[in-house]
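The data are passed on as follows:
___
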Amino acid sequence: MASCPVDAIHKDEETGIVKINPLECIGCQTCNIVCPVRVPKFYPEKKISVKCDLCDGDPACIKYCSPMAISYVTREEADKLLKEIYD
């Protein structure tokens, strides 16, 4: 968020969901460069960077993933799971 020169990236304090406003994004790609996990993606045809907004807390990809390969957990749950797997 701090890297965006036009403040197009906003975090919902209640949910923690980070969104890029496509109407504010100028396509400079700074967020793409500085993000340590490479989450934002640049779409040249739209000239903006975008990222998953988790469908405002109700991700459709999870509901419709028939093999149930995707799950939505808190950061703490994800960290615990990763620690169990890789430690």
